């Protein structure tokens, strides 16, 4: 009941007494707060408030778990170039390069697009459930893939493209988004460290699979990958610790319709989708490219993917340090532009030295782009409660572009043994550079909205 309502029932003397009593209670407390403010003392926060710890044992355990998730999601997906070459030459010789690339692009599509469901589920507290389900599905599909028969396209398509892609999607978004529950100020660095797992996986998988394919055969090469994924998922599930807000402090449920009315978000997602049309071209085709170029040995070709992924270790960490200091967009946009421009360099690659330098630079630059694109979309959230949904919708739309991008490249290349590399190179570069321009417009609109560059 307010002082005004009390006035209708009390005498003037009683009201005067109440006001004096209230002043005696409030004045000392207000004076104490003023003295604390002058002394620089920060009032202690209540236990029920949601804090982002910015470190600690659980936070770094979560980063370690996310590292394992990254190594088997993007790390394994980035090794598809090994399968592409093997399928074209050995396992699926009756199918075209474009048809085979649909397997890898479908895998990449579901890695991204599953996020449209995984994002809202993550916001509702189902992080652990998705991690466990994705782990079981991933391991099961790998061992099913190992049993595929020669020219049995549908078996590879279902186990590797569909099943593994959905499993990766169920692991990837919660595995990365959970890191942002533990870090805010240093989120880019934490995500960058977690993403180095994809670089290590991108080194281990191509070398391991190539060598086992040559020495033992296809079946045990895929099984070896399955055992690696099994161990990685066990470690990830043991290490990751979700940090959700208490029930009474949670933000309102996200409304996807509002995202589609947000110009900065729309431009950023559209630009990222264009970049995704060309992003996987090098990862899918660099091994085949070097195998079909004169003067390049087969042994060196097997290690090109490992070089790309090895260089991305530094790309996923060093630029992220600067991103936390000067803003994500000021680092992300130049890296995105350079990745598209660098593809044009493939016209001049004719020897081992040039290809090695290209692989190192491309791995570094695209490593930075991939590790910062997720935090970029998360930074567009108005509150923590819509972070997963923002990331999920963006990644789903990017996944559609990834689905059709590499098959388009395959169609432009044509059927071997002579491939039209120039058409695929131009398409990839133009899409990535154009996408970067659109993303930059989105970043500029976000800066106008927030009053500063994110």
Automatic annotation (TrEMBL):
PANTHER family: EG:103B4.3 PROTEIN-RELATED, MONOCARBOXYLATE TRANSPORTER
TM segment ranges: 59-79, 99-118, 130-146, 152-175, 187-208, 220-240, 265-288, 300-319, 331-349, 355-381, 393-413, 425-447
GO cellular component: membrane
GO molecular function: transmembrane transporter activity
Protein name per its UniProtKB record: MFS general substrate transporter
Species: Dacryopinax primogenitus (strain DJM 731) (Brown rot fungus)
Membrane topology summary: Multi-pass membrane protein
Similarity-based family: Belongs to the major facilitator superfamily. Monocarboxylate porter (TC 2.A.1.13) family.
Compartments, as annotated in UniProt: Membrane
Chief localisation class: membrane
Domain of life: Eukaryota
Keywords of this entry: Membrane, Transmembrane, Transmembrane helix
Membrane found in the keyword field: yes
Protein's UniProt keywords contain Transmembrane helix: yes
């Amino acid at each position: 009941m307010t002082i005004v309502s009390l006035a209708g029932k009390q005498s003037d003397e009683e009201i005067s007494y109440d006001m004096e009593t209230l002043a005696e209670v409030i004045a000392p407390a207000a004076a104490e707060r003023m003295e604390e403010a002058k002394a620089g003392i920060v009032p202690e926060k209540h236990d029920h408030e949601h804090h982002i710890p910015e470190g600690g044992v659980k936070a770094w355990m979560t980063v370690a778990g996310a590292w394992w998730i990254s190594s088997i999601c993007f790390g394994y997906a980035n090794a598809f170039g090994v399968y592409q070459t093997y399928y074209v030459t050995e396992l699926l010789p009756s199918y075209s390069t474009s048809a085979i690339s649909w397997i890898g692009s479908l895998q990449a599509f579901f890695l991204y697009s599953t996020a449209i469901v995984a994002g809202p589920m993550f916001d509702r507290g189902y992080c652990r459930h998705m991690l466990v389900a994705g782990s079981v599905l991933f391991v099961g599909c790998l061992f099913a893939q190992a049993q595929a028969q020669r020219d049995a396209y549908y078996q590879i398509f279902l186990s590797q493209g569909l099943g593994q892609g959905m499993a990766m999607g169920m692991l990837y978004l919660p595995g990365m988004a959970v890191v942002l529950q533990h870090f805010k100020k240093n989120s880019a660095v934490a995500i960058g460290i977690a993403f180095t797992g994809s670089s290590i996986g991108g080194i281990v998988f191509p070398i391991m699979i190539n060598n086992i394919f040559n020495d033992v055969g296809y079946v045990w090469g895929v099984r070896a990958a399955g055992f690696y994924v099994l161990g990685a998922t066990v470690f990830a599930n043991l290490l990751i610790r979700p940090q959700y807000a208490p029930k009474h402090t949670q933000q309102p449920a996200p409304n996807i319709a509002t995202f589609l009315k947000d110009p900065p978000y729309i431009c950023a997602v559209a630009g990222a989708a264009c970049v995704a049309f060309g992003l996987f071209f090098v990862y899918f085709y660099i091994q085949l490219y070097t195998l079909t170029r004169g003067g390049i040995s087969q042994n060196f070709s097997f290690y090109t993917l490992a070089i790309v992924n090895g260089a991305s270790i530094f790309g996923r960490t060093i630029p992220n340090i600067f991103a936390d200091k000067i803003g994500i967009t000021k680092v992300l946009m130049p890296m995105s532009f350079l990745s598209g421009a660098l593809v044009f360099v493939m016209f001049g690659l004719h020897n081992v030295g040039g290809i090695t330098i290209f692989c190192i630079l491309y791995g570094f630059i695209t490593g930075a782009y991939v590790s910062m694109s997720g935090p970029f979309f998360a930074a567009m959230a108005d509150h923590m409660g819509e972070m997963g949904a923002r990331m999920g919708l963006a990644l789903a739309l990017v996944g559609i572009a990834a689905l059709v991008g590499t098959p388009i490249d395959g169609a432009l290349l044509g059927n071997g043994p002579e491939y039209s590399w120039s058409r695929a190179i131009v398409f990839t570069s133009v899409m990535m550079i154009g996408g970067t321009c659109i993303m930059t417009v989105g970043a500029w609109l976000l800066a106008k909205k927030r009053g500063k560059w994110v």
